[in-house]
Amino acid sequence: MIKINKVKQNLNAWSVLSFIFIMLIILPNLNILGGIFSPANENWQHIKTFLLQDYIFKTLKLVVFTGLFTIILGTSLSWLISAFDFPLRNFFKWSLVFSLAIPPYIAAYTYNGLLNYTGIIQTFLRGTLHLQINQKYFDIMSEKGAIFIFTMFLFPYVYTITQAFLEKQSAALIENARILGRSPLEIFFYIIIPISRAAIVGGTSLVILEVLNDYGVVKYFGITTFSTAIFQTWFAFGDINSAIRLSAVLLLIVFVILFLEKILRGRKRFSFTTTKSRPITRQKLVGIKGMVAFSYCLTIFSLGFLIPTLQLLYWSLLTYQKILNGKFLSLLVNTVFVSLLAAGLIVIIAVVIANYCRISSGLAAKIYSKVTTLGYSIPGAVIAIAVIVFFINLDHRLYWFYKFLNPETGKLILSSSLVMLIFAYVIRFLAIGFNSIESGFEKNGVSFFEASRTLGMNITETFWKVDLPMIRPAVISGFLLVFVDILKELPLTLILRPFNFDTLATKAFEYANDEMIHEASIASLFIIAVSIIAIYFFYKTGDKEAE
Amino acid sequence: MFVKIKGLNFRYKNAQEETINDFHLRINKGEIVSILGQSGSGKSTVLRLLAGLEIPSSGVIIIDNLVIVDDNNFVLPEKRGVGMVFQDYALFPHMTVEENIMFGLKKIDRKAKKIRVEEVLALVNLKEFSKRYPYELSGGQQQRVALARALAPQPFLLLLDEPFSNLDKDLQLKIREELKGILKATGITAIFVTHDQEDAKALADRIVILEDGKILREGKPQEILE
User: Fold this and answer.
1) Closest to B84 (Cβ–Cβ): which among A448, A454, A469?
2) Which terminus of chain A has fewer CB atoms gathered within 10 Å of its CB, N or C?
């Protein structure tokens, strides 16, 4: 028998562990927000007066236009694929998602290599057609170019979510509208857009968060956004105080966006709760209409996947003899090792927190699950600054201990080790593992857990014997998703890796930055291949489950 | 009195009114009591409070002279010795029938476990099904496994939540008779929750009618249902 208060507060190993994990996630970020209240230095006055407006303006420009264009591409494609039949429709349905396999920073230098003076397109125009065209038409390293890259390689976020929604939920509405004599275009504007608002907003906010998170594209193109400004302030001017302030401003922008998302989504979930939904019967597009739909999809697929991939393949043929050696192998080992380690850690932490949140119905559990998912919204630059400051602080506090172990020790131990990078990965990608595992728990419901309790097993015994075996598929898929995401992660790895530690992503980016785009191709292709396998795996299994 | 429930109150989070309002009940050893009520009357909540799956805001539950819950103390569900048959059976899908039943047999050696599994499977007439997985069984068979699993650890008190709601009508009549036989054969004290008067009449020694979390009437089946 135990005290009823203890039961009511849910005090057990799960809640204590969850509390510790959550605190470790919150503390570094609180530090950043706290930075607003510390006194500003001269440098900050300068940034505030001359630069801040520009950062905000440029960042918002990228966000707004990318958002707009991904909405246009994403919804139009999802509507085409859901409601119509045309040549190769089944192929496009999931190959359009492949754009997501190419991280924007890889796309950025691939397109630059494709379009610059020595690139294949200009060489062809000059050499074969004898055309001299003004260079400005080929300059992708601009804000417009960045918007193009973000749009082409992030639109699948809007496309997949909206398409899945339309396919499952909209059949009755679209068919009714057809019977009532509406044209496809009218249906698109009066039915499709309004009913899929929540899906579109959800997808677009993911796109926007990715744009804010990006460091590779804007750095490579030389655009000053918040991400690049934060790092420049610290590394070029050595002004950590102002870097923290900039991070805080960016964090506030993220909060505003999340708030807007909530408002725009509204309470309208637009999903049928009672009637069984059935898949939509697709309308056949023949003749010219079919060809237009086909060409549209083909263009997007080519720009967003085929052309850059072919270009990378070609470059890899030029360079593989030089690149594929022992060094590349150690690069591969590094990448896989750090990704496996971090993904494993993330899944363990996610399982602990998800299990606690499921068992406890209290306020703490609600906050924990919010905090866990918030990490994914925090841009890499902010997490990087937060984690560095946190670890340098930690190193200062632990110095006496290092000294006790080794009198000859240097001051920075943790902050020059892999621990810091992995810690940052956990903050950023915990949400992905958590969502997967949480939905696994939700799918199983609570009655197995309760049955086990009435049969004499406590929470922990129940977890090992009942919960874990039952959520295993969710754990595995969460692990894979996180693994792939870490494999291609750039900003955090670039900033937080220990000296001389390279992954495929950082090496590829370094090559590209050193004007060695061809050499970057093999590492890039490897990242793309792993991502495609993951995408294939998830969309195919997702499709089967839906059927 | 074997089971004593006094002044039990409970309210779900976000609920406007008490889900259970001053509930009291006394049950003799070996008695089968039915809680009869519409959906939303709070009848399943009473079972969840008895099993320890919910914490009452106030009230006392005593089973076999042991205080299970009062205003200061709480016995966790795994320590209560209260068995429960869930409405959806909740048979663990990754375990065979045998493993499901063995699950609740903790502190005895493997041989004794095997013997106990055979005993309860014989009781519910499913001896040859011990190696099957739950999805390889019919609805009626699943229900009997759930019953066997709940009975195996020899609980002081057995709770059954809408035991017939997932069965079709023909099967329901047959299983109802069987269930009565099994419960009487083990001499167990049981509470079962139902919305069906016929079920209550056929099975129960005593009926409690619940409405909006309050006891409306209580008595022998023939007194209560004409």
Assistant:
1) A454
2) C
